Amino acid sequence: MATAHSCTSHENVLGTSLELKVVDLDPAAATAAETAALAEIDRLSKVLSAWDSTSEFSRWTRTHNQAVEVSPELFQVLSLYDRLRMLAGGNDISNSVSSATRPPGRYTLKWDGKDNKEKQVKAGKYTVCIEAAREHGTYQILRQEMEFTGTPKQVQLPGNTEIESASLDYRKIIR
User: Fold this and answer.
1) Rounded distance, CA 37 to CA 25, Å?
2) Are 109 and 97 in contact, with CB atoms under 8 Å apart?
3) Is the pLDDT of residue 25 over 80?
4) How far apart are CA 5 and CA 19, in angstroms?
5) At what angle do helices 72-87 and 27-48 cross, to 10 degrees?
6) How much is the pLDDT for 36?
7) What is the spatial distance between Cα 164 and Cα 156, in angstroms, rounded to a whole number?
8) What is the domain partition of the chain in residue ranges?
9) What is the pTM of this model?
10) Is 130 within 8 Å of 111 (Cβ atoms)?
11) CA 108 to CA 166: how far, in whole Å?
């Protein structure tokens, strides 16, 4: 029996493009699996989306200092965030240093060592992540652990398919 392969592209799924590949011996089962996957993504988007003002998460963020019942899915995500925040030494990590799509080129990012509340982060080991994702290309990530202790340090990272090269330069900036 031949295996059925289904590869479909969908736009604006969680705010991005989705290429969904389904493999099954039965074409009807493959179609049912794709339909179920898209329905589950849509269901979770209504719970977790930060972009949709009507999502459960967006509604929850508009409440302050009041008890609000949340779904099991949102509770799980918020619990994981609390755990990650604890691992980050109590620092608010909800907004990473990121930006929208940029054209190819050379970019410089300066970080002042402060968290989202403008407080200096604790000295210690941190992981710097540089991501590149193309809509119809590859997803690549460079990760480099760095120790921020006040001692200047430079690290050259090897490139990959999307990122030709990257360097990290940790030093004190005199103003």
Assistant:
1) 18
2) yes
3) no
4) 13
5) 70
6) 92
7) 11
8) 4-61, 97-170
9) 0.46
10) no
11) 10
Tens digits of residue pLDDT in 73-119: 888 888 887 777 776 666 655 555 555 566 777 777 777 777 777 78
**Tokens at 13, concatenated:** 């799924």
Closest CA to 89 of 54, 66, 56, 113: 113
List the beta strands (DSSP E) in 14-123.
16-24
C-alpha 30/C-alpha 6 separation (Å) is: 7
Cα-trace Rg, the chain: 21
DSSP 45: H
Q: Retrieve residue 92's tokens.
A: 């608010």
Query: What would the two tokens of residue 144 be?
Result: 């480099």
Tokens in use for 121? 């982060």
H or E stretch including 141? strand 139-148
Query: What CA–CA distances, in Å, run from 125 to 12, 96, 119, 120, 128?
Result: 37, 16, 17, 14, 10
CB contact at 8 A, 1 and 25? yes
Measured distance CA(3)–CA(51) in Å, rounded:
38
Count Cα neighbours of 66 within 13 Å in the Cβ-side half-sphere: 8
